[in-house]
Design brief:
alpha/beta, 37% helix, 16% strand
Amino acid sequence: MKRILVIGSSHAGAVKAAWDEMKQENSTIELDFLVLPWPHLSEFHLYEDMTYGAKAPLAGQKAIDLSNTINGRETVSLTEYDLVFWVGYHSPVDALVRLMHNYAIDDVIEHDAPQRLSFILFREILMELVNNCIPNRMWLDAAKQTKLVIHLCPIAAETCLAIPQNKKNWRIATANSRIFKRILELMMKRLSARLAHHNIDVVEQPQETLAENGMTKTEFSVGSIRLMNAEAHPEKDFSHMNSAYGRLLLNALFVKLGTTDKESPNRAAS
């Protein structure tokens, strides 16, 4: 039996919903959750003894109560698990999209932005965005003792193109989808290499979920549910994904770990 702890933000809702559908098909895996939506997740902390979660005085009573409501507990010891899967980890993609909206960039994107970046400076900024995704010292030390795998926040779903305040940013960034996807590929390659140096693995967004323009296909966002009460997110929500996305993500994790039965009906469904 392989024991996996899922931690992270409201993005873990897709994994939780998928696991409710899949767990009967995966008898050799035990999946536990210790997750919270933002901003309450900021009150979860990792402690020197490898305990993780909401403890006073660093966490307020509201975060502690919410953790008990969602997870049935407020803390957990990472040493009890074979692997920790961090879902909804900080992604550099939104910052990249804003950058491409605010600047014309030599040899990358031309539009009527008031400012321009050279390609050399743009590349340096990309590397800084990647560097900002490296976990703090506590997590780097924890990764020496317990296997840590992360999954970044999913790329926004195409539904955001219909929302005026988001439409312009993403339309500019994805105007040349070949370049946009190439930039994402280079960033992920760099981030994966940096994290691997610290014994941290990455499960990337499944290719089946990505549209031609590099965004997430609408079908993987529609019907996403909240962590707190399992109610559906608003129709205009484009950042959270559904159980179909969670299923593909878990399958990708299990394949990476070599724990998925090739004859499993769950595997076939993916």
